[in-house]
Amino acid sequence: MTGHDLDPTLLRLLGSVEPEIGCEECFAQLDRYVELELAGAPADALVPGLRAHLVGCPACAEEHESLRALLELDSTS
Amino acid sequence: MSALAAVPTGVEEWHLDLQAQGARRDEAVARLHGLLLRAARFEVFRRRGSLPQLSAFELDELAEEAAGDAAISVLRRLGDFRGESSFRTWAYKFALLEASVKVRRRAWRDREITLEPEHWEGLAHAGPGPDDDAENAALLDAVRDGIRTALTPRQRQVLVSAVLEAVPIDVLAERLGSNRNALYKVLHDARRRLREHVAAAGFPEVSE
């Protein structure tokens, strides 16, 4: 068994070993991160710790998904 | 709920007028509100499945309220905008935050949150199923033991509520008189302590 084989509930309980930022820093960086993602830039390298936070924080993950989706909608309207 | 208006064009310079005076500022604030309302409606519409009891009118009221609160935040924090994204993207995130928090809080408003640690005993049912092998059973025992012995009462309460009961972190923060950032720090520390306990119990892979 490896850490990657764990049951999803156990994964959520144990969290990621990757360094991660907190909710406030995630909010501060979210606009830049999403624009980098949509531009095809290496967002995870340029904003370290944000991806790991999204994995561990469902609320911030929702807001990330929404901002990305809204910008994608804008780009098509 | 009314349809989302098309995104305004030419939005990348007008925001400078938010710091002007008189009619120029009033016009810029009106444009800002329109932008924020678009984002708030977008978010409330996306999450409407969690609020089946609300009418379209009530959902739109929620979006209006979120847009108003977001406008206050944006105007208060204009100095934080460094141009690392477009102003539109920067402003959107305030409206999405306000709307998503309001939706989550409304969805949980009448739901009881059992802030009792006994619920983690239910973890026995979170494993792969009745065919658990001995290793899985031992891992679950280590996790249960870690929740029981390695965490502070506060860490146990936050971990069980946020993960096993799926209580949104901002809802939990409101109930506990805390804030989202502080509570996530508690959750982060709880996970780290639990990993250390489980690793020491013979499962070093959880810390790799």
Overview of the molecule:
The complex is a heterodimer of chains A (77) and B (208). With 77 residues, chain A is an all-alpha fold. In chain A, 69% of the residues lie in helices and 0% in strands. Chain A is built from five helices and no strands. Chain A has helices at 8-14, 23-38, 43-46, 50-56, 58-76. Chain A is globular. Chain A starts with 7 loop residues before the first helix and ends with a helix. The mean pLDDT of chain A is 92. With 208 residues, chain B is mostly helical. Chain B has two domains: 14-108, no CATH class; 117-207, Winged helix-like DNA-binding domain superfamily/Winged helix DNA-binding domain (Arc Repressor Mutant, subunit A, Orthogonal Bundle). Chain B contains seven helices and no strands. The longest helix of chain B has 25 residues, at 22-46. Chains A and B meet through helix 1, helix 2 and helix 5 of A and helix 1, helix 3, helix 4, helix 5 and helix 7 of B.
- Low-confidence parts of chain A lasting 5 or more residues at pLDDT below 50? none
Oligomer: heterodimer
Number of strands of chain A: 0
Net shape of chain A: globular
Number of domains of chain B: 2
Radius of gyration of chain A, rounded?
14 Å
Specify the structural class of chain A: mainly alpha
Please report the distance between the alpha carbons of the first and last residues of chain A: 47 Å
By DSSP, the count of extended strands of chain B is 0
Element pattern of chain B in H and E: HHHHHHH
The residue fraction in helices of chain B comes out at: 55-70%
